[in-house]
Specification:
receptor; transmembrane beta strand; about 950 residues; mainly beta; Plug_dom; 6-stranded mixed β-sheet; globular
């Protein structure tokens, strides 16, 4: 059997979860931790404290700056997903969607900068970006989650903000030879009765088994987790303020006016089924074979219905209320003969998401009986997502058959960070006057596939400076495919076409709905059944000989064809990493120094519009042939060198200082790499020529995000009790960001795009200039800058107090982040400088817990100060999010027979989500999610 030098570095490599380490190193660690003469005492406890102290041990012996959560913590909390649990870590935040966390921000950077692995393998996402949707991962099936805030050469590249590593169970490391767990919980939302058709009750069920066989050489683990989680939201949504201003009060000064607002009831449910399997065979000290498989199927269906008031500025405005240059209230009306597009819609939006994620790997590890360990690994990650947005728009009519609109008006007053006061002059609950004007569906399907091969080596050295060397190579192939489609009946504005008239509603397809809660003063409306509306539309289409209402990619809506396409990404990476272990005087120093070299070949295939019949004959899904487009393939290759250094100075047995420096990268959102382009021609600077212009807002020529980062942290671990104090400083210098931009005088031909030499317009042939037109695309801008901050952590188990107070404990962290990165937006009605989206200057997480025999209880608080992010409206819009404080409570009691009862309240104070544009009087979204109650039990054998 190979022998390792018993050093802190050995412990660090194992605890940090290096990309490749040997099973022998695991054995050494376990023996070292149990040895009475261990160099540093490792805290070992049982009960809830285990999760807290185990996390400290992982941090203490890790060779990077990292945070982690143990399986005990995850298994004990009814978190809907792993994202909710990770938001309790220092510097980690999330935006609530439906009241739950999904995507993560780390140190002020959003999900595009966060890399994620499962059992050390890259994960693809069901969304169009790189950001992992962590709600796809049931917390019950994850044994450990870690956030690496500093990289090392052996870690897969991709995380400018950090890398989130999720792990499923290794059955050979289970304490018991055989174990079985069943977990069942029910949930209740106390605001569900405010939303018509909303479900109040949800449920969760999980089963897990781990067993060791053949004299502990074969381990098997399987798990299943089911979630049915309804959610609700009562919401007022204010829309952006127009920069097209208007004098609304006759004082000679123009004011910014909101595009409108929405009054909505929102409800829906998430259903998720997750499966996990793992096998570990270790027939000898020299050979280890592992296999793991994870599968998750996620369905989310929701509705949002109520009123949508659009284009306020185009109506007749009276009694306007003006505040700081913005119209915040007044009366807006429209007559029956008006052609203005100010409208009051009764809306019914139905959104659905169906996604499946599969991830698996096989790992073979072999040791030659000496200093060399070799690991070979094959992994696969696949994610398919289908997103369908559908909706109806109904408008009030005096005469539905002749499309004679009713005269309408709305009187409103925005109330800052509270719902606005709104009243209408008309009644919107009568099926005889409310006509169905528009029905639409806009599906977006995506497929992500990634296969990766790794070969890693570890060679142990007997030197006074380098304890071992890691080196290896990884090759990955990723393919992304996107398909857009559309189906529409009628128009949102203007009169409907003669063959698609406004449809009269009937009593079977609509019902009167009243608002509740904080919105209970709003007018009632008709909720329209979306499926029955489709039946009505199809009956009309069939009666007039038209095709059924079926979403397609078609030339009539050419964006559906242009925004469909494929992206291919081949990555070859190699690394070498020296694991350090040396002394400077009386101070032991451990860590690693290495470099990762990454070669990327990215390309995209899509449709490029050239016009004038100069393209290929391409048929859309409606059978229509166009010759205005060509199939293009555009891309680039690039090579990056990513050095990294991690040093830990062990000042005393209980004090250590860490320093880290690295160059890091994150690749562009994969949907931004598509090559599809629409185009148009206009006159060139030279008379008699035409210049080629294109739009798309994507580009296969994008470079990654790059940053240089530095970290310095001090950790003190208590000697007389269990706990630690941590102070960390970080600095990131980000080189650029990706923005939509219009490039003037773009040379299309030089950048690989095919452009015709001549066109014939109205019988006249024109030469085409290929380098004078504009290109509406995505670019790497030069608006980089620093992000810097400080993180403070404190954990204390008060076991020195007299009984029964010795069961009391506390863990908490505070983060302050600052950035010079700024962007400009006009969503407030004028150009406004905004901070880096996702960055909260102040983030505070605390948990106060108490344990007595089998009784555990805790109260947790998460606070984040205001930040900028996207609010969900008719279209996603950047907005300022107000500060929020989320409080959760949990209590459980465990019997000696393995049965444990649990009770929890999430969002104990019913904290709403609030946004605004520029200033608080420019109201954005006000959402109330309600409290979520959980009651359940766990049984363990």
């Amino acid at each position: 059997m190979m022998r390792f030098k018993p050093s802190l570095l050995t412990l660090a490599l194992v605890a940090a979860g290096a990309s490749m380490h040997s099973y022998a190193a695991d054995d050494v660690k376990e023996k070292d931790l149990k040895a009475k003469d261990a160099e540093i005492e490792v805290i070992q406890v049982k009960g809830f404290r285990t999760s807290v102290i185990k996390s400290l041990n992982e941090k203490r012996f890790g060779d990077t700056v990292s945070e982690s959560i143990s399986a005990d913590d995850l298994g004990a909390l009814p978190d809907q997903s792993i994202a909710d649990a990770l938001t309790r870590l220092p510097g980690v935040t999330a935006v609530r969607t439906g009241g739950q966390a999904s995507g993560l921000n780390i140190r002020g950077l959003d999900g595009d900068f966060v890399f994620a692995t499962l059992n050390g393998h890259e994960q693809v996402t069901t969304g169009g970006k790189r950001a992992i949707e962590f709600d796809q991962y049931p917390s019950e099936l994850i044994s450990q989650a870690a956030v690496y805030k500093t990289p090392k050469a052996s870690l897969i590249e991709g995380g400018v903000a950090g890398t989130v590593e999720l792990k499923t169970a290794d059955p050979l490391k289970n304490d018991k030879d055989q174990s079985f767990n069943i977990n069942a919980r029910g949930s209740f939302n106390d605001r569900a009765d405010e939303i018509s058709d909303a479900e109040q009750y949800g449920n969760r069920l999980s089963l897990a088994y781990q067993g060791k066989f053949l004299e502990d050489t074969l381990g098997v683990a399987v798990g299943y987790a089911h979630l049915y989680q309804p959610y609700v939201a009562s919401q007022f949504i204010g829309l952006r303020f127009n920069d097209d201003k208007k004098d609304v009060n006759g004082d000679g000064v123009t004011e910014a006016i909101s595009e409108g607002f929405e009054l909505q009831q929102k409800g829906g449910d998430d259903t998720r089924d997750g499966y996990m399997a793992a096998i570990h065979w270790q027939p000898s000290d020299n050979l280890s074979v592992k296999g793991d498989l994870f599968h998750s199927k996620f369905t989310s269906e929701n509705f949002a219905r109520g009123f949508r008031v659009k284009s306020l500025k185009n109506g007749t405005i009276s009694d306007a209320v003006v505040e700081n240059g913005s119209m915040t209230g007044g009366t807006v009306s429209v007559g029956t003969d008006s052609t203005d597009d100010f409208s009051i819609f009764v809306i019914n939006d139905n959104d659905s998401k169906y996604s499946e994620l599969t991830s698996g790997s096989i790992n073979l590890e072999w040791n030659n009986g000496g200093a060399l360990t070799v690991a070979a690994d094959v992994s696969y990650s696949k994610a398919d997502g289908e997103f369908v947005n559908g909706g109806t728009r109904a408008i009030l009519y005096d005469d539905i058959g002749n499309e004679v609109r009713s005269a309408e008006s709305v009187t409103y007053q925005l109330n800052g960070l509270s719902p606005a006061d709104v009243s209408f002059t008309n009644d919107y609950t009568n099926t005889s006057t409310l006509g169905l004007k528009e029905v639409g569906m806009w599906p977006y399907n995506q497929q992500n596939d990634l296969i990766a091969y790794k070969l890693d080596f570890n060679y142990v050295l007997d030197t006074s400076f380098v304890s071992s060397v890691d080196f290896g190579v990884r090759y990955a192939e990723r393919e992304f495919n996107a398909q857009r489609s559309q189906a529409g009946y009628g128009f949102e504005y203007d009169k409907n076409p003669s063959n698609q008239p406004v449809l009269a509603l009937n009593g079977d397809m609509a019902k009167v709905v009243d608002f509740g809660g904080e919105l209970s003063g709003y007018p009632s409306f008709l909720a329209i059944d979306f499926n029955k509306a489709l039946e009505l539309v199809n009956a009309q289409l069939a009666a007039t000989g038209q095709s059924p209402f079926t979403p397609t990619a078609n030339w009539s809506n050419n964006w559906t064809m242009i925004q469909s396409g494929a992206v291919n990404e081949d990555v070859l990476a190699g690394y070498v990493q020296a694991n350090l272990d040396f002394d400077i005087g009386d101070v032991k120093v451990t860590g690693n120094l290495g470099v990762r070299v990454v070669h990327t070949d990215q390309s995209s295939t899509g449709l490029q519009q050239v016009g004038y019949g100069l393209g290929e004959a391409i048929t859309d899904e409606q059978g229509v042939v166009s010759t205005d487009y060509i199939r293009n393939e555009v891309g680039q290759t690039y090579t990056d060198y990513l050095p990294s250094l991690n040093l830990t100075f062990h000042l005393t047995e209980n004090d250590q200082l860490r320093f880290a420096a690295a160059s890091v990268m994150s690749r562009p959102p994969i949907n931004k790499l598509k090559s599809g382009m629409g185009s148009w021609y206009d006159n060139a600077s030279t008379e008699g020529y035409k210049k080629y212009n294109a739009w798309g807002n994507t580009s296969p020529l994008l470079d990654p995000f790059y940053a240089d980062q530095y970290d310095l942290s001090y950790e003190h671990y208590f000697e007389e009790s269990e706990g630690a104090v941590v102070i960390a400083l970080f600095y990131k210098d980000i080189k650029s960001f990706i923005n939509d931009f219009t490039i003037q005088n773009y040379d299309f031909e030089a950048n690989g795009f095919i452009v015709p030499d001549t066109i014939i317009d109205n019988g006249v042939e024109f030469p085409v200039v290929k380098n004078e037109g504009q290109y509406q695309t995505a670019i790497n801008n030069d608006n980089g800058g620093y992000i810097r901050g400080i993180e403070l952590g404190y954990t204390q188990v008060f076991d020195f107090l007299p009984s029964p107070l010795d069961g009391l404990g506390f863990t908490g962290s505070y983060s302050y982040s600052d950035s010079e990165v700024e962007f400009t937006t006009d969503l407030s009605g004028s150009n406004l400088t905004i901070p880096l989206p996702g960055l909260s200057e102040n983030v505070l997480n605390t948990t106060l817990f108490y344990t007595l025999d089998g009784f555990d209880t805790r109260v947790s608080m998460r606070y984040r100060s205001g930040y900028v992010s996207e609010q969900v409206a008719v279209e996603s819009q950047l907005a300022f999010f107000d500060a929020e404080t989320i409080v959760d409570y949990q209590a459980s009691y465990a019997l000696d027979n393995g049965l444990k009862f649990l009770f929890q309240i999430n969002n104990l104070t019913d904290e709403p989500s609030k946004t605004y544009f520029g200033e608080e009087h420019q109201t954005g979204t006000i959402q109330y999610f309600g409290r979520q109650y959980f009651l359940g039990l766990t049984y363990s054998l």
